[in-house]
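Subject: for your reference before the review

Hello V.,

The reviewers asked for a structural picture of the protein, and I figured it would be easier to keep everything in one thread rather than splitting it across files. Below is the amino acid sequence we used in the manuscript, unchanged from the supplementary table.
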Amino acid sequence: MFKDNMSREGLSLTELLLVLALIALLVPSLLFITVAQARKTAYERSAQAYAQNVFRVAWAYLSEEPNHFLITGDCTTGYSAGNYSVSPPPRAVQACRVWDGGNGYPQVEVISITGKVFQLP
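And here is what came back from the structure prediction:
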């Protein structure tokens, strides 16, 4: 009729608190890894978007008047070509440059603060 203490079912309060404490210690570290990866991805997408905008401005400038020479150089403070311009880059951009690829078409290279390089086209 009475159960032996050795054959109990479930967890004691101490065991349950220990499990909860371990979970509480592990969850923040997992969240930190996820947040850090999300931040890195956001920086890279931001740098890629800036590269695309600079490329579009350079391409629009050349398309407007085919006899124009491409405006080349550093674009880390923004980029202007004719009536087209791109505002200064977000902080995700470490370096940016525009050059003529040898065929009259613009080439854009942007390096994000994570070190990833984006080249267009």
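For the response letter, the relevant points are probably these. The helical segments are 13-64. The longest strand covers residues 93-100.

Happy to draft the paragraph if you're swamped.

O.
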